[in-house]
Amino acid sequence: MRRAHSVICAVTAGITALVTGCTHDTDTRAATTAAQRAEPRELTYIEELRLSDAQQRLIARCMTEQGFTYHVYRPLTVEEHHPVGYVQDDVAWAREHGYGSRIQAKADRARLGNPNIAYRKSLSEERRGGYDTALGGGAEARELSAEVPQGGTYRKRVGGCVGESEKRLYGDLETWFVADKTAAGLQAHAMEAVLKDSRFTTAVERWSQCMRRAGHPYANPAEAREAVRRQAERRAKQAAFEEEREVASTDATCARETSLRRVAEEREAHHRDRLRGEYGDALESVRRIQRDALTRAEKITGRQS
User: Fold this and answer.
1) Which terminus of the chain, N or C, has less C-beta within 10 A?
2) 2 lies in some domain
């Protein structure tokens, strides 16, 4: 289970939020199996980052054409973008970065130091209004909406260079927005089901026993991380980080020894597949759109998978 968005989304949100608001049964089974084999896989975090880089470049080009400056800004390294999901089993990464607290702090500082925010502030009031309209479309920006399967409606205003960049990458924006939000809702629903799944909870108990043997009596990964966070508030920074790295690396080691990630991924796929009959089109659509967008992004950034 990995996070849906890379940290760069949070870093750039400080400026974009100002203007975008965010026949036979056997034959049938054979055909379904073939379709599932042909379904595009989920993007890796590196591929998601490549999409983000491409969008930033598209926005910058568009803003230049509009007479403004827009900085392509990615302050974190590829390694620092490594996702830390509920199950983290990359021992080497954990030994160096713990649970990523210093990376998060770096991202927070980068958000405040975003050169696009500084540039916008340097403009006159009139030019600032023009910048906002050029970037996000202003009051005339189109509103997209998507009703998600578990209830509720997501809305997003999109226009200007941000809207143009998304259109260049994803094609029809309404189709992309609805598919993306539907798939995200289904993924969240599947992940909630995993946390209650008996096979997963049994694997978590094995993980907990492994952690206890190592001197860390935590019931689950979330509890371990929360304990590290609380302890960091009462200890010197370096000592707190050393403790974070020790607990995180033990966490990752136990996750590997108990195959916790394999169990989590298998149970997540199981619960997601239970929704496929009703929402399979949305799940397949969002991945195909993403793969097409990645192909376009690689042409823009000059990097290949």
Assistant:
1) C
2) no
